[in-house]
């Protein structure tokens, strides 16, 4: 979603992005998604091996001396990445591209679900704002990304499904892994 917003804003502002721009992505899937917006072969696209920030930092570390970084984000952006950039004396900017507002999901979540998956900390926040007394009561909770893990745990939720992980780089593969582990029991 952030890629779409970023490139749409650049397009609406008639801002040309240099052919020399390098892109650092958290996963290969995100890197491949860039093909919708750039000529992939003419740009330099880098990504971590397993979708973790640590591997992304290893990749950035190889290029940090001659680069200026732009980290487009929402108002609740990942401070782990900016903290790393700051502690490694990288030149960077963090333009805020959007504000997250919780939707009223009471009618959707009124049903009992076996599994609820969150992809952002904003999703966890929305659930808690809509259902301040939410109890898991057997509902399995999935989360994508370190910040979403943290938000879910801070909200008192027990995480059953986590992605990305080395054996599960996407939420779909994490769900498949979880469901196959249930079959074995």
Description:
By secondary structure, the protein is an alpha/beta fold. It is built from eight helices and nine strands. The protein has helices at residues 2-12, 28-33, 53-61, 79-87, 106-109, 121-130, 146-154, 171-184; strands at 22-25, 44-47, 68-70, 73-74, 91-93, 96-98, 115-118, 140-144, 159-163. The strands form four sheets. Strands 7-8-9 form a three-stranded parallel beta sheet. Strands 1-2 form a two-stranded parallel ribbon. The longest helix is centred in the C-terminal third of the chain and has 14 residues, at 171-184. It starts with a helix and ends with a helix.
Topology:
Blueprint: H1 2-12, E1 22-25, H2 28-33, E2 44-47, H3 53-61, E3 68-70, E4 73-74, H4 79-87, E5 91-93, E6 96-98, H5 106-109, E7 115-118, H6 121-130, E8 140-144, H7 146-154, E9 159-163, H8 171-184
Parallel strand pairs: 1-2, 3-5, 4-6, 7-8, 8-9
Helix pairs in contact: 6-7
């Amino acid at each position: 979603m952030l890629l779409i917003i970023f490139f749409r804003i650049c397009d609406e502002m008639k801002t040309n992005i240099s052919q020399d721009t390098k892109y650092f992505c958290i996963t290969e899937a995100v890197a491949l998604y860039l093909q919708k917006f750039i000529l992939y072969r003419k740009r330099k696209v880098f990504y971590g091996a397993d979708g973790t920030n640590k591997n992304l930092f290893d990749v950035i570390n190889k290029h940090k001396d001659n680069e200026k970084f732009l980290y487009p984000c929402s108002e609740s952006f990942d401070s782990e990445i900016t903290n790393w950039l700051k502690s490694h004396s990288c030149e960077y900017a963090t333009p805020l591209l959007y504000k997250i507002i919780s939707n009223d999901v009471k009618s959707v979540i009124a049903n009992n679900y076996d599994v609820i998956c969150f992809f952002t900390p904003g999703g966890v926040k929305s659930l808690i704002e809509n259902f301040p007394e939410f109890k898991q009561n057997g509902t399995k909770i999935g989360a994508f990304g370190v910040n979403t893990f943290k938000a879910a745990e801070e909200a008192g939720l027990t995480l059953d499904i986590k992605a990305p992980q080395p054996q599960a780089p996407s939420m779909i593969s994490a769900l498949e892994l979880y469901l196959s582990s249930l079959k074995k029991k």
